[in-house]
Each structure stands twice: as structure tokens, then as C-alpha cells.
Amino acid sequence: MSKDLAGAVRDVLSVDIETFRADAEADAEVVKKELRDGTFDNHQSIVGFEYEFYAVDDGRWSGDEDLACSLMRVPRRMLELIGFEKELGLHNAEMSTSPQPFNPHGLRAQESEVLARLSAALDCTRSEGMRLVSDAMWTIPPAGETAGEYLGGSVDDDGIDIATNMSDAVRYHAMANGPDAPETFTIEAPNVSYDAPTVMPESLITSIQPHYQMSHAADLPTHFNYAVRVAGPLLALGVNSPFFPPDLYDDGVDAETILAEAWDEHRVRVFESVLNTATEVDKVAFPRDLETIEEAVDRVVDDETFVPMPVTRNGERFDDTFATLRMKHGTYWRWVRPVFGGSSRSSANARIEFRPIPAQPTVRDSIAFQAAFAGLMESLPQRQHPVADMDWEVARENFYAAMRDGLDSGQRWIANDGHETTNPVEVYEDLLAHATDGLTSAGCSDAEAERYIAPLQARVDAARTPASWKREEVESRLTDGDDLATAITGMQQAYIRKQSETLLDGSFADWV
Which GO terms fall under molecular function for this chain's record (predicted)? Predict the structure, then answer.
């Protein structure tokens, strides 16, 4: 790593935390005034999407099956060529779509943009013997390295700890070097306890993040509270990370125990345990309900200040008027979170960023979650769905139950007629019907709405998720005599092979 990065970290550590907090408080008043003035209102709902990937060896150059699907670092120049953005690890790449109106044309534009850009990126990376993978957690480390070595690698640059496999994201490097930083950042999960000197273990995980912007900013609390209540049921449909890289498991634990005690979505636990290691109050958390739009702004201000980054205000953008608050939002880690942004007054927006869903096996599955979330955000408030009256504690337990057990988690739901149920058929019949209703309300035909929701309906009908597919693959290999490491590696290679056949023009329902 260059001296410039260590110097940039030192610059961050020199920022006065009290001044940073005061600036964020002042920015909050700017945002609240603009909210009162209607600046964040729009004439229509808008959707957007963030889609994370990791890179693996596609075996083209090595010709070695043992190296196939091992993690690869993405050259920074490659990211520029494919128009993707850097994420935490050098193996990561992220795509963000252009926001579009929530209507049939906008949804088609979202899907077409993902397909067009991803297809071009796959062509470009293929020439380098590399493949981008859509998956919640990688399990095969780079060739010649263990996962522990890759995640824990760091160098001391004159007192500054620099993670050797982390991108030059100064904020993340600064987390390990502040005066109150812990000595290690910890993964705590069933049969896994791993410490690293930086936040690099978070780079195990990848996700998709649908965004929904309501037309009237003052309605954000209502939509937010509904989003909190659909988080558990949607996560239960999307679970996709029951296994860690094998060398991260505790010594002396047998494969059967690991299989039996594995949760369906360890990604949730990785994010929470690693980043909450360094804070007094859990910052990665399931959020409480909102009552007012002003409360949403205040929560970002009041959130524990972690890395007070230096802020430049050049006045060229509208959101430069609240640049410190926007910077502070970068460490406001909640599974559902409000966002205030906009490069110009005309593009100013208040939106909900929905973060529970892991990266999915195919583009169609990913877009299904985006469409379902947007449809629910449209339908549930319009219909005044009674699930709004579900206790927050129940919604929270739904979320963590989904993390542990996926579709077997007994999700609690209040159906449209007001009765409470844990019957998964009833839960998803009501949930997906309202997602479909929201899509048709936005102008989709019945057939188009059903097409968007079909991949999720197929999971309900088959009682099968990506996590259960992975469990079946590992269990089958263990039965055939493989040890745990071989079984997990074989499963991961099978996942990537299946994905290579279906990523752009299939769905998880095609995986048999």
C-alpha cells in the first residue's frame, strides 16, 4: 500500500469529532427546512438498485480444477473499464443502476441496465480468466491462501494498520486505527470465532439493495415502518449463506454439527458482529419504527460518531449543503435506513434503502426482490394493510428468525383480513399478492407483475431457497464421503457452474 493511503488515514484521524458532530447537527436543520419546503417531494415514486459481486478464477488460464472458483482480486483498472465501483475488498465490484420512475418502463429499464452492464462486464472479465459471482458469501479463498490469511493480512505503515486486501477506502482503513479502535474485529457465528486486525472480515459478504423513493417525503415514516415489517418475510425467501470458508470453523467441531447448527443467512451475523465490535452501541441493527420524517434525520445525527471523515463543500451540488450529515450517514448502519440526497434541488429525494437481502443466484431473482419490495411499498400503505399494527418486537424477531432458519422460521404475519398467522402459505399468499397489487397499481399488466414475482412464488411453492440448495449439496457430499472442506468447496463450484448457465437468462427455479 502507498504512503498516500496511510497519510489519508492520518488526516481522517485528525478530524475533530466535536466539530464534525456540530456540523452534522447544523446540516440536519438544513435538511429539515428543505423537507418543510417540499424540496424532497417528487411527482412520482422512483426505484433504484445496488448490486454487489465478487470475482473468482474461471479456470480459463489455469486449467486446474482445484483452482477453479477461487477468489480473485479485481484490478482497479478493470473496475473502471466495466463501469463498476469498488467495495470493501479487492475482490469486490458493485453496480448501481440509474434511478427510474416506478412504472413498467422504469422497472424494465432497471432490469435491462443490469443485464446490459453485467453482460458487458462478464465479457470483459472473461478475457482475464475471471468471473463475477452473485452470491451472499464466498467460501473458496484465493489460490495458495487460506481465508484467514486473506482476511487478516495487514501491514504496519509507521503506526497505521493497513489491510493488504482492502480497497483504498480510507473510511474502512481508519476504523482500525482510531484511538478507540479495538485490537481486533471479530466474527461470532455458530462454530466460527475469528479475529482480524481490521474490518476486512466484512468483505466475506455481498448483497443487493433495492431503493424506493416515495413521492411525498413526509410519507417516509409510514413506508419505513412497513419496510421494517416485510424485512423478515423477504429475508426468509432470500437466505443464501449457510456456510463459511472451511478454515474459519473452530477446531474440533465435526461436520455434522456444523451442518446442523449453521444458520441460513450468516451474512447478517458477519456484518453485525464485525462492525459492532468497534462501537459502544450496536450500529448494525434492526431499526425501530419512525413517527416523523424529522425523527429520521435526527437519528442519523444522534448515531454514534465512528469515523469523522473530513468534508469538502464546494457548493456545486445541492447535497453539499448537508455534506457532513451525508458523510455521517455512511456509517449509519441499519438493515432498513432512510436516505436523503440529490445532486440538484430538482433531484432531491428521500428514499428507503432496503438492506436485508443477500446477493442472489440470478439477475431475475434479484430483480424479483426489487420489484416485490417496490410493489409492497406501493400497495401496503395504499391499502392501509393491518400488518402496520404488528408489534415492532415481532417484526424484529421475524428478521432474526429468518436469519437463522429461512423459510422454516415460522414468520408471523397479520393478513389482510386482520388475522395473525404463521402458516407460510398464508403469509406469502398475502405478502406476494400485495407485491403484485403494487406492481399493477404502478401500471404493470397482470402478466408482467406475475412475471416479476414468479421467482419468489416458486420458492414458496417448492419450500426451497438458495440456502437450502447449498445445504442439500453439502449434505450429499458428506454422505458420499467428502470431508467438510471438500464438501463446501464442491458445493461452491457447483453453485458457480449453475449460475454461469442461468445468471442472465434464468432463475433459481431452474436449479434442479
Answer: ligase activity, forming carbon-nitrogen bonds
